Amino acid sequence: MTSNGGLQRRRVAGNNLSGDHLEETSQPMNRSKSANSINTPKSGKEFDDLSPKLTLMEEVLLMGLKDKQGYLSFWNDNISYALRGCIMLELALRNRISVVKDATYSYTRLSDRLVELVDSSLTGEVLLDEAIKLMKSSNEQLSINNWIDYMSGETWNLTKVSYQLKQVRERLAKGLVDKGVLRTEKRSFLIFDMATHPVSDSQTKNEIVKRVTTSLLMKSDRALTTTNIHHQDESLKPLLQLRTIALICSSYAANVLENALWAMDLEEREKCFEKVEDYFRMFGVWPAVGSAKNIFEACEECGCTKGSLEAVASVLDVMSKMDSLL
């Protein structure tokens, strides 16, 4: 993976967009607007208070872990890159980063548009805070594509080696242990021992899988908002919908979405993959199209900035072009 060439889009069976589905998802959302909520950006700290117990990175890792064995598939090379994308998604959803305003961007590929740190307040999540410090210390503005490449180590630029975030999966697993979702065990693999992290709180993982599968099987794009958020109310629905869609796209890019679909028959799985392709098409562009436009506009009313939402679309644009390593 290189920062200048981008990633090639991976394909799944049946990725042709259904005309019926696009007709369904183009229906406008019903939103109640108040004078105090419309276009009033929230601070990053406010979004931290509203964020779920688990970050997108933790949810993606949890979906990829084998429940009893406590480790990821040895053949999954996509997840490391996708987890760095999840870090950028979290920062965008928390109003920490924003796409730089530039009148020439209509001619610039979405993933190559520059982003800036607009709120350097720390989140309390170790990896997010490390990324914030990296961006704050950088003497140049970089694109979403660059940041994901540099944080994952997928670059030949030796001057950016220090930007790599190391041992991300292990650190996420230890964070989930601290949150009571996983536990740590020692497992012997031939000539060496390795720490594994089996699931100890199966309810948390089951809720994530249910949220993902229900969203994918729904006929419209009104994704489930069931989540362990601290202050859940009707006005937060669009933001929770966007988080669910970001989780689904990230899981697909990380090659772990299949773990949530294993109980479905082949036809249902194909419909789910088609829905993911629809999500990438609608949410991975800017301005957004279809029902994505309505969700992004509603998220602005929740306090998200346009620049942060454009950063979300930029990350999804990068993820949509990842190769599938079968």
TrEMBL record:
Keywords: Golgi apparatus, Lipid-binding, Membrane. It holds the Pfam family GPP34. One of its GO terms (cellular component) is trans-Golgi network. Residues 1-46 are annotated as: Disordered. It is a peripheral membrane protein. GO terms for molecular function: phosphatidylinositol-4-phosphate binding. Transmembrane segments: none annotated. One of its GO terms (biological process) is retrograde vesicle-mediated transport, Golgi to endoplasmic reticulum. InterPro entries: GPP34-like, GPP34-like_sf. Residues 25-42 have a biased composition (Polar residues). It is found in: Golgi apparatus membrane. The keyword Membrane applies. The keyword Nucleotide-binding does not apply. Belongs to the GOLPH3/VPS74 family. PANTHER family: GOLGI PHOSPHOPROTEIN 3 HOMOLOG SAURON, TRANS-GOLGI PROTEIN GMX33. This is Golgi phospho protein 3. It comes from Basidiobolus meristosporus CBS 931.73.
